[in-house]
Amino acid sequence: MELPKHYNPEESEEKYYKLWEKSGFFNPDVCKEKGAADPSKEVFSLVLPPPNVTGTLHMGHAAMLAIEDIIVRYARMQGRPTLWIPGTDHAAIATQSKVERQLYEQEQKTRHDLGREEFLKRVREFAQGSHDTIIHQIKKMGASLDWSRQAYTLDEQRSSATYAAFKRMYELGLIYRGNRIVNWCPRCSSTLADDEVEYKETNAVLYTFRYAKDVPIAISTTRPETKFGDTALAVHPEDKRYREYSGKVYTINLGAGDQEIRVIADESVDSEFGTGALGVTPAHSQIDAEIAQRHNLPSLQVINEKGEMTERTGPYAGLPVKEARKRFVAWLKEQGLLEREQQIPQNISVCYRCGTPIEPLPSLQWFIAVNKEFVLKHSQITGIASGSQTTLKELMRKVVAQKQITILPEQFEKTYFHWIDNLRDWCISRQIWFGHQIPVWYKNGEIFVGEKAPSPEWRRDPDTLDTWFSSGLWTFSTLGWPKDTDDLKTYHPTTLLETGYDILFFWVARMILLSGCLLGDIPFKTVYLHGLVRDEKGKKMSKSLGNVIDPLDMISKYGADATRLSLIVGVAPGSDSKLSENKVRGYKYFTNKLWNISRFVLMQTEDYDPKATPQLSREDEKILQEFRAMAQEVTRHIEGYRFYLAADSLYQYLWHTFADKVLEDSKPLLKDSATRAARQYVLVSILADSVKLLHPFTPFVTEAIYQNLPLAEKKETIMIEPWPVSI
RNA sequence: GGGCGUUUAGCUCAGUGGUUAGAGCGCUACAUUCACAUUGUAGAAGUCGCUGGUUCGAAUCCAGCAACGCCCACCA
Questions:
Q1: Above 70 in pLDDT, residue A150?
Q2: What are phi and psi of A93, to 5 degrees?
Q3: How far apart are CA A455 and CA A441, in angstroms?
């Protein structure tokens, strides 16, 4: 059969993805049924990190899909029962803000103008649209996901898992409600978890002033307007300058009534900074709150959830913080209290979603206690016996420290431990509407935890859960938990988690926490982290820079196979990579080269008998041996997650050995009837095994070639061909 | 402030103690009715960041330094 002169990706991609879906082999149950998977072999399971339903997929998603599909197709060709679960994430804050922005741009309305129900309807519509686009894009990449098991963090089953998880952790005493300093985003009007806060370098003014003329110690601050909430003045215990004042109490008036300021000594004060004295504002600073706790100081809230001054601040009440700062500094000057104004660089904390500066506030919120002891009933965790006491932090640390979970590349284990060691309680309540509404009900000071109210008089907590709480259940909520399903027994813990290093804390660590707590087990055995896909200059791709390369664009211009290769080759695990259209084009040339290699072989083997076993020459043997050596090397690279080297070896071999040397040398031998049959055998077998080795990387072109090969026995699809070498 | 990483050809990157350091892209010259011009052949191009050490031998191991990048951290 003769192939067309140039490979046409579009045609193959359309045709073969349909064939694969129809075959059912994406589903391990079908593979077992039809004999394509060996039930006695170790299962391979992987969850797709669910993309956010905030829009469309970018090159980072494409790279993730390429890597995971390589691993999954390889496992499947090993004959292992292989499950890759697809799904999407509702991404609470991200999605809600996106719809809010649209609503404001298009209709100048806020979510409050629509009301909770109507607004949520809009968000759901938007999410559905994004979902459909995303699924289409995933399929375009050739990802071999089991669509029969598709999940969504906010669908019925995942929601009931989320509520069940909350209830169990509440009963274990690990979820509690508390009044604590939280990271408050005034724009989102919601709390944020510690790791949802980012830092931005800015220039700030450091004001040095005295509370009053008779207070002997000046303080320095960049937030003078918070000083109405000060209840102490802290100095270092060793600081000789201030030792004599320790314990004194001053009554001051900053223009909003009397305040008592006690001079205290605390180790946490840096005597080198500013005047070496710190105004303690327990209500608006985490560190001050800790000092206040140690010294039993009262806490006065002077800024509210809207970022305005509270009633307590008298003439300043109702003013936005910036305005209050301006007026208060002017007042300090008038009073002759201001000693110095100084420009300093400062890292301010901002919301990771909208960039608005964070306002630390005391607030009544739900938390997960990471240091609290609890009894782990059934434990599969090394070093923690069933029924023994542990803490979430200990559990998270142990599974990695004892190598029950391996993180690759290894350097990220250090980052992980560093994070665990600094971990504080996780604030999981959010004051937004889109998401899982907290399953807690109130009536006359009583609390009931459950998905449904015991009777109609109970009022539900209006807040929703942090999106990472539900996605943290992903490895088991997708398998049917809290029900004890066959899927859960068969596929959990999952074999591998493959994701970007940027969500190591957000997601990976949370999955370890929640799986450990709720199942007493690890969620996955290995974590493989990939880096960011940047533009050709190494800049982050972003709409505002106009340097975004769209995966669908690349696929339609150069094909999915070329796009996949361009995201794999030259990309070291865990490090960022650079992508240019030129690189994609280069791999398009390769798919075409492969196509023409096949065209040549097929043209030379029209009279080839696949059942014959011709006598091979020494040269023939040598060529086959060289191929086998390469095939083993490729296999070892895949086993070691070195996909960049595996793909490169195949590229080198096929182009510069097989095409440039073997095929060229074969031309005379094919013309000679004495050597023709043996050479045909050599070419067909190397080509057949090569497309199998390449199939995980470039599934479409290899399927197209496979379907045309003159083989004695052929499967329905190359996808279920056994891997041609073992190591 | 703490931690992590990177530094090899113009560009992107391989190469974890052993002969003259490799690939892709780019560049130069030549070829071409041949499976493929989305091609082939040949070629130019590197004091392997710097300094010192270990060794018969170092891009590779060790120490120090430098530049760049990233992560964590509420010097208020």
A1: yes
A2: -65, -45
A3: 10
Q: Is residue A187 part of a domain?
A: no
For chain A, percent of residues with pLDDT exceeding 90? 83
Which two structure tokens, joined as six digits, stand for A222? Answer: 């960049």
- Segment A303-325 shows an average pLDDT of 94
- Residue A212 shares a structural domain with residue A355: yes
Smallest CA-to-CA distance from A475 within A450, A459, A461, A496 is with A496
Interatomic distance A580 CA / B10 C1' (Å): 17
- Residue A116 identity (one-letter amino acid): R
Return d(Cα A446, Cα A492) in angstroms, integer.
38
A554-566: average pLDDT: 96
A593 CA to B24 C1', in Å? 15
| A598 in the same domain as A519 | no
pLDDT at residue A109 is higher than 80: yes
Stated in angstroms, how far is A411 CA from B3 C1'? Answer: 11
Task: Give the count of domains, chain A.
Answer: 3
Which amino acid would we find at residue A107?
E
Checking if the pLDDT of A381 tops 70, the result is yes
DSSP SS3 for A360: strand
Distance A683 CA to B36 C1' (A): 17
Instruction: State residue A2's pLDDT score.
Output: 64
Residue A609 (CA) to nucleotide B73 (C1'), in angstroms, measures 70
Same domain, A331 and A246: yes
Q: What is the mean pLDDT of chain A?
A: 94
pLDDT, residue A507, reads: 96
Q: Are residues A589 and A508 in the same domain?
A: no
Which residues span the domain enclosing A351? 197-360
Is residue A106 classed as helix, strand or coil in its secondary structure? helix
d(CA A277, C1' B75) / Å: 11
CATH number at residue A273: 3.90.740.10
- Measured distance CA(A448)–CA(A166) in Å, rounded: 12
Phi/psi for A474 (5° steps) reads -50, -45
Residues A122 and A235 in one domain: no
For residue A47, what pLDDT is reported?
98
Round to whole Å and give the CA distance between A71 and A564. 13
Question: In this complex, which residue's CA is closest to the C1' atom of nucleotide B36?
Answer: A596
Tokens of A352: 């990771």
CATH number at residue A78: 3.40.50.620
Residue A721 scores a pLDDT above 80: yes
The pLDDT, as a whole number, for residue A86 is 98
For residue A587, pLDDT over 90 is answered with yes
CATH number of A594's domain: 1.10.730.10
Residues A553 and A29: their CA atoms lie apart, in Å, by: 35
Give the mean model confidence (pLDDT) for residues A45-57.
95
Residue with token string 């686009």:
A133
Question: Token pair for residue A562?
Answer: 């070329």
Q: Are residues A542 and A631 in the same domain?
A: no
Among the three residues A506, A532, A552, which one is the final residue of a domain in this structure? A552
**Sign of torsion over alpha carbons A273, A278, A284, A289:** positive
Residues A151 and A92 in one domain: yes
Protein-contacted positions of strand B (CB under 7 Å): 2-6, 11-15, 23-25, 35-41, 71-76
Please check whether residue A95 is in contact with residue A53, taking contact to mean a CB–CB distance below 8 angstroms. yes
Give the nucleotide at minimum CA-to-C1' distance from A348. B74
Block residue for tokens 């060793």:
A238
Boundary (domain end) residue, out of A360, A384, A415: A360
| Closest residue, CA to C1' of B72 | A419
Question: Which nucleotide is nearest to A594 if distance is taken from CA to C1'?
Answer: B36
In a domain, A390, yes or no: no
ipTM here: 0.93
**A603 nearest nucleotide via C1' and CA:** B35
Q: Is residue A529 part of a domain?
A: yes
Residue A417 counted as domain residue? no
